[in-house]
# Entry
Amino acid sequence: MKKLITLFLAIFMSLSVVGCGNNNESKKNTSSEKKSTVQNNNSSNKNSSTKDNAILKQMEEDLTKQLGSLPTKGKNEKIGVLIISLTNPFWVNMKECYENAGKNLGITVEVLTGTTEGDKASQLETLMTMATKDYDAIIVSPIEGTNLNPGIVKCNQNGIPVINLGPGVDTEALKKLGGKLDGKITVDFKEQGEMVAKDMVSRMGGSGEVAILQGLAGAGQSEGRTLGAKEYFQSKKDVKLVATQPCNWDANLAFDATKAIIQANPKLKGIFACNDVMALAATEALKSIGRNDVLVYGVDFTKDAKASIKEGTMMASVTYSSQVYTKAALLMAMKAAQGHKLSKAVYSPLTLVTQDNIKDYENWK
# Structure
């Protein structure tokens, strides 16, 4: 899938070059320099939008193919969604995307959450309450693999299908409680870490010291991203992983950890933070000590990360389309509510947004 996305980008980059050449040839004089500048900017924005749309279309086509037969058009289904928290911009965006997708699909979507990213008890309490309501299906994204299992069992007992989006439910532990999932849609977290590590090592010239800022211990996305990056770093004999520091998705912890790692390893060349919140904190820590020579990578491509990449502070962020992702999850929930069997996990394609290709993601959703 990475090759498909790369190929798509290459094709559309080639087309934009040809388009710009034609626009330049059509300029007849220099008496309207301001007008020419506006025209060029509009052309650039149009090309950027075209590339955005092409990548989004490719991702949606891939997910639709994985979904197989689509559900009957919305029959006023009521879908409950349990996300991790609204303290992280990623989940704020996911909530908005769920609600917009629900409107477009003709269904009712209610998005709920726990209090903070680490409050497992609060998230479970919310799901236990949801299990008593009249949802036709529920989509859950657990803080860690087992914290929602009792709530999922209660949903099973009440006949509410459960779809797992993103961070994985520990299905073996769930089975021991007598529970089951009705479907799963996620991304390959290990692949996210590997994508970052490959790009970072390439930009480092194949050698140097690196560090990883992890999320919450036991969280599937943190564990997978760490493993993918770690394995790749360790496969390169001239790359040294000097620190793997848990920061619990917390900006303050990531800020302090970055300063401590730099102090202990002044030759550090790269930092992979397992989400953008921590990556942005790492850039602030580096700025506070006058370092601008460390490559910083994150995951999620939040609005703030986008701005940081544009200004040359962060190097890159791994992403996928939340717009496409949430729509696919709701289609799965509708299928489950309508009695379809969902036998295979569905995986969203990934892409890496860097300082080099940021213009191609101007209108990313």
